[in-house]
Amino acid sequence: MYQLFLFLPLLFLSLNSFAQSKYWVFLKDKGGQKDYIYLNKDAQRNRIINGVNYDALDLPVFEKYKDKLQFHCDSLGYSSRWLNAVAVWAIPTQIEIIKNLPFVSQVQLMHGSAQILELESDLKYKGDSVLSDIEYDLALRQLKLFGHIPDNSLHGEGVIIAILDVGFNNVNKLSAFKHCMSRIVGTYDFVKKKADVYDAGTHGTTVMSCIAGQVNDSLPLGLGTKAKFLLARTERTITELSEEEDNWIAAVEWAETKGARIVNSSLGYTSSRYFQEDMDGYSSPISRAANVASKKGMLIVNAMGNDGTTNWKTICAPADATEVLAVGGIDPETGLHIDFSSYGKQSDVVKPNVCASGVAVVASPSGGYFKAQGTSYSAPLVAGFLANLLSDNPNMTRLQLMEYAQKNATLYPYFDYAHGYGIAKQKLSLDAADTSQLNLVEYTVTILSDSNDVDYINVNISGIDNGKPNYLYYHIADLDDKLVYYNVTDIELPYSLKIDLLKYPISEGVLRLSIGGSYNTFNFTNK
Amino acid sequence: MNKLFLALVFAFTISFFSSLSAVAQNDEEGKELISEKPDSSIAKFGANRRHYLQYVALIGLYVDQAEGNIDVRTGFDFQYKFLYKRKLTKVLAIGTGLCYHYQNFVLNQNDNVTYFEQYFWNNQNVNHRKERFYQHNIQSEIFLRINFDPKRGNTLGKYIDIAGYGEYRLGSRYQVYDNIANGLREKRTFSKLNITNPFNYGISARVAVFDFLLVGVSYRYSDLFKSNSTVPEMPRTLAQIYLNINN
Known about the structure:
The structure holds two protein chains of two kinds. Chain A is of the alpha/beta class. Chain A contains ten helices and 25 strands. Helix content of chain A is about 20%, strand content about 25%. Chain A has a seven-stranded parallel β-sheet, sandwiched between helices. Chain A has a five-stranded mixed β-sheet with strand order 19-25-24-21-22, with no helix packed on it. The longest helix of chain A is centred in the last third of the chain and has 18 residues, at about 375-390. The mean pLDDT of chain A is about 85. Chain B is mainly beta. In chain B, about 10% of the residues lie in helices and about 45% in strands. Chains A and B meet through helix 1 and strand 22 of A and strand 1 of B. Strand 22 (about 485-490) of chain A pairs antiparallel with strand 1 (about 30-35) of chain B.
């Protein structure tokens, strides 16, 4: 019988796993309150710039409702003024009572955990104080991809960026952040409810370095080195179910009151709670909250996810939210989608919105630097880029910023579900044009067709081959601009392409092609 | 035995790697780098979809005693299962499984207990350095799955399976290890035992503790040995730890 004792702990665990659960309890109203939450000066200024007025979302959750919920559940978690919801721990019998309370509109079970969107690093957390030649080149390249940044750029000066992550281990001790420590204007650990965020997980440290890190006080790893920072820990290092989503929402609401203009989130929720079809921008509370945050004037920059090679494959929440700038990863060598970066269609809008390098040199929490990969790093690289843009143009609204990122991306107006509109890029000014960096090939794209009513389309592409890769991007979209097919092919010039429209289940649509900045479009009716 | 072990490792490896999906990108014809037809239709296959195939490996320990309160020290009981699940509702699913089952009983040496003595040792109570009996079986089962967290995304979640199984004996062996003269050791294996029942059946239950870990218990109703055999019946209750391979 001694064997039985080996199983007792496991049996105990299995029974324990069916205990209380966490729920979002959505409320019908805010109890007639009229006192809005306090916003600091930066937050008020942000609202003025973005033309955001106070409304019912700025009223706190009614305390008396919280008291009544407290009476009927085991304990309360965070509450969200934007969702008008309270997170509660309760057992099923308690939740049945709560559902019937007159001020409760809906109850939603919380389950699952966030993914930290970082892949196994080459030298995980064992950084070298001196960069190798390869790392040095990569450190330059991860920023060069954004194009020519003018010498007089302000690198995020005056812009407040909130970073939501699992912790910012040793940020206060590392030389990579020495220059910006005085500009960390707020920290909060939403897991342990304390101010110190420097003793928790390490992922936030590497993520922050892609905005503000510097190698030896000289080589920047991100473009927001002079920004101000709000650091919020919202996740546990060792994953715990049902906890992180309300922390994330609470942290974004906190960031808004502190004046954050950009929020970087290298976290995402996928299969542990949702199905792929839930990635529609509004099914998950976190995505709904992200949309509200955006409407309050903050630009949420979220990593697309690292599920490109897993069964999940597609976007994570809250990157799926319409108003969130979802950032995918590209291979910095080729500029093409990197395999692990999540892709494919779920959201009703183009996702990812833009891309950045999916491989980056980051600051190690134990000192030094190392090469890491994951869309975790693509997002903060873009956040830093946008902070730089915002510091140069402080009156840009959140919408203008997002539009800028998309419209100046390398493929725009072309898009697909692997690259979005391409790599976010600084608008090229004539005086800044570094022509040696450009692939100056003139392409002629000829679409051969007698009429628009066709079975297939012939495309001829010609130009002078300069020895560099010629990537032809093309897609077929329906009348709602949803892609039914997209393709990237490395072609040799001249090149002929025959597209058989009968392969695609649409009667009318549009073919779009993009090659080396040349963009063509052809509307067709399928015979 | 070695061949079986290799076959087992092979099956394990194949199923493990097949659980990893391939990348959508390909470079067929040397130039096509990405080619995708975005599909937003609802998938029918997945951990919390209508159909799902789950691979589990499990080890077990017998927690009861052999017939006549004989304390049989359990050896290595191993199973590798393919479980097909058909979702009925958010809470209920039914399924079927196919399994390789290796069961091993290490027989404690005791002057007062006889195991196979009647058949191989002229009915004399012989103590060996080690004595064991093992079987390879192919097993099938049907199960009912009850889930406890209906809002669980595309994961298996927390559940209890209640199953009935039947198994067919592929082979059984009786093996003894003895010390002989001059420090030499001898191993003898007896196969094609005609005293074991070819078919066995029982019930089992398992609980998902985490997505990757389950604990379970099974009880064998049938006798391993034929009714006219004098070998004491081996333990019936098996406590199990499952590892979800393709979680």
